[in-house]
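ENTRY TYPE: paired fold submission
RECORD: A
CONTENT: sequence, then structure tokens
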Amino acid sequence: MISLVHATTGFSLVYLFPNPFIYIPLCLLSHYVLDAIPHYDLGSNLKTYKKRKKTTLSFVFFDVFFALMGIIILSFFTKNRINLYFGAFLGILPDILDAPFNFFNKKYKFLNTLHLIHGKYHRNSKNILCGILTQVIIFAIALILIKKI
């Protein structure tokens, strides 16, 4: 999933469950649940992107930029922004922790288990349109949940 979807989902989970003992594990778990749904993102073609570092870095920059802008815009309509930002961060944290493996070929023992779990549950869509559509639907659901509250 792109970062915007993970961040918005984390944001909406904090909205739904304001207790940190509930939202912290849910935000982290949501990342793996969402990645188990077939989707299309940078990880879908990581081998191709690794060959083109400029393309990879551009994609990562825009992915993170749009996630940040989306969360900032959503936060204009809310209170308790710090927790909401934290939920959005937790929603993308597994990808941040996976970045050294994926982009810099760095392997850290303490992150190895998380990397293996992430890889085990990550599902790519072979159809780009379907893979993008699943993300649009999940993003829309997260927005609806935020709006209803």
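RECORD: B
CONTENT: sequence, then structure tokens
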Amino acid sequence: MNQNPTHGGFLWPHLAKFLSLRSSHPAQSEFRHLTLDSAFGGAWVALMQFNLLPSVLLVTMLSVDKIAVGASGAGVIDLRKSPTQNLRAIADRKGVYVEDLTVIILNRPRHEKLIAEVRSSGARIKLIGDGDVSAAIATCFIETGVDVLMGIGGAPEGVIAAAALRCCGGDMQGKLAFRNEKEIERARKMGIGDPNKIYTVEEMAKGPVLFAATGVTSGDFLKGVRFFKGGAATQSVVMRSKSHTIRYLETTHFFEHKPNFAL
């Protein structure tokens, strides 16, 4: 089957941080996590059958300027247009005012101009410290109160978010955000001919897609790990692009029956 399993990237960064904080040897823990990062990156490239764009994004760890919406805003976003123009198009598609929209943005200095423009448009803003994968997914669920994701974030996270949006009927566009000429040259050597190309959600996550994630810290999308004496409870989600099926799993773990489990 030509399917793209996308799972570890959503869970791993949070889990790595959690394990490092609890480790009695933080330096050794970080070295182990860097090794696993490399292994995960190589595994994803192989699992995606060496698809050019996501493979380049994962290997080079570039940044991507992206805009993402749920199904109710699909088909009207365009990164070539200004944030204000995109917000008006999304509001028209949803049948609401721009003032009714909530835009989720990573709270970074690079987003000062974006934040100022969104505020001047009248839309509401929700600033987050990290987690733009879950933020992109949140646009697909009305109960989160999030309509749009805007701004620059990690390229690997962009690929993972695109996979999830494919499963939810959402829409996304991305454009590589190079920091210098060296990054442009490196991307060209790896097969990216046009550094200014805008990629669609289908180009970032091609073919049939399976997406799975488990929450580590609680957010708009999933509950975090809840510990109790002798075990823990987790919440996970599994989604499929072909059927748009979304399944949630509530799991209880008992550590005494998992002798190889260790923090």
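NOTES ON RECORD B: The first strand starts at residue 4 and ends at 6. Residues 60-208 form a domain with the D-Maltodextrin-Binding Protein; domain 2 fold (CATH 3.40.190.90).
STATUS: closed
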